[in-house]
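tl;dr need the bound structure. longer version: we got a ligand (2-acetamido-2-deoxy-beta-D-glucopyranose) that a collaborator sent over and nobodys looked at where it sits. i said id run it. heres the input, straight from their email, havent touched it
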Amino acid sequence: MICSLNPPWKTMLSLLLTTMMALQTMAMLEVNVPEQPVVVLHGRDAVLNCSFSPASAFNLSDLSIFWQLTDTKRSVHGYWGERDQLVDQAERFANRTSLWPVQLGLGNASLLLSSVVVADEGSYTCFVRVQDYGSAALLLLVAAPYSKPVVTLESETNLRPGDELALTCVAYGGYPEAGVIWQDGGGRNLTENITTSLVANEEGLFTMTSVLTVVLEPNSTYSCGLFNPLLGEEGYAFVTITGQNMAFPPVALWVTVGLAVCLLVLLIALAAVCSRKIKESCEEARREAEEAKELEEEESKTGVGARRRAGDESGGSAYSLIQEVGGKNVMGFKEENASLEDIFNGLIGPLKMNVGKDF
Ligand SMILES: *[C@@H]1O[C@H](CO)[C@@H](O)[C@H](O)[C@H]1NC(C)=O
Ligand SMILES: *[C@@H]1O[C@H](CO)[C@@H](O)[C@H](O)[C@H]1NC(C)=O
Ligand SMILES: *[C@@H]1O[C@H](CO)[C@@H](O)[C@H](O)[C@H]1NC(C)=O
Ligand SMILES: *[C@@H]1O[C@H](CO)[C@@H](O)[C@H](O)[C@H]1NC(C)=O
Ligand SMILES: *[C@@H]1O[C@H](CO)[C@@H](O)[C@H](O)[C@H]1NC(C)=O
Ligand SMILES: *[C@@H]1O[C@H](CO)[C@@H](O)[C@H](O)[C@H]1NC(C)=O
Ligand SMILES: *[C@@H]1O[C@H](CO)[C@@H](O)[C@H](O)[C@H]1NC(C)=O
């Protein structure tokens, strides 16, 4: 009773059944493709296997083969009338596809696709018709290995235990998206606190950047491992942050410290040399000053300048100046060692005063 109330439904069912039977009678040709996805490395050639087994020996002129993209039905490669038919071939497959003519009679309709790129990834359908026809679809996947990952620190200065720090792990030129596993030295999974981003280049290959945020502990190791779902483990990189690094992380600081130490040693040596020299000239000066005094007393009548004479005798060095400042002989070595004095003046005032105090 219900059936008679629903004639359209009944009609549709019978129509469907006849269509299915028609398809079944027509699709007698068995066509086989790989069930597992075909994985091809970026840049390499791919063989998309497709084989058929006709009921009996056949005339090649009766054979038609259509390879097309399953989703868009765009033509990848056509063959009938005993030759390739590429008029409606999608442009990006131009000059990249071929069949094996000798193999066709043996039921091998496999397609050679050269220089596979990321954009080739997808489902391909192989249609074969002799008298009957059949079809099957396979999945092509493209893989590219990533470069060895590199881990860098956000900033290498003034690291202290307890600081929050961003570690960046970068690898490029790979496909598809890789899995990232961050671990510490003890193998603890740190993958919870990461941010991973992917950027594709014009070839569709990815640069993968994964940022891990950690609270720094002394002597810690952080490793970044890459896992390509098609190629397996790809490599890993790690950084170790030692206690030393935390105290004086940058090379620049070490250089600075080293230079400062060198300079200090140099200055102390200079101070020692200079103070000895000044002491010597000081004693000489005192001696000569006494002489000069006597001379002055003697010569006060002859009119010869004591200063000039003393200066002549000491070759223009300490003596004349010591005389001028009247015993406060801070600059005693000025004329002889002008450049050293500049260093003292410019760099280390207090030390200069100490030198002066020695005498
Ligand atoms: C294609 O078929 C040949 C012969 O059956 C087989 O050796 C080869 O592994 C197949 N290739 C793929 C990618 O399935
Ligand atoms: C078809 O022939 C080609 C070329 O000899 C070969 O590489 C491929 O594996 C063959 N495929 C099958 C399914 O036999
Ligand atoms: C194949 O077909 C062509 C054209 O239909 C015909 O001329 C030829 O004789 C056939 N060859 C065989 C072996 O049947
Ligand atoms: C394909 O090859 C032909 C001849 O070698 C050439 O003229 C044509 O430009 C090529 N097409 C592409 C898209 O490379
Ligand atoms: C992730 O970060 C939170 C907050 O910074 C922290 O409490 C947690 O321990 C971290 N997880 C791991 C696995 O390091
Ligand atoms: C690490 O932790 C992340 C997030 O908690 C998880 O998705 C991942 O499967 C873990 N990996 C391993 C190797 O334990
Ligand atoms: C870090 O490691 C070094 C050498 O492995 C060790 O000498 C130092 O004591 C360690 N520091 C800490 C804080 O664990």
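gonna send this back to them w/ a short note. The chain has three domains: 27-142, 150-247, 260-357.
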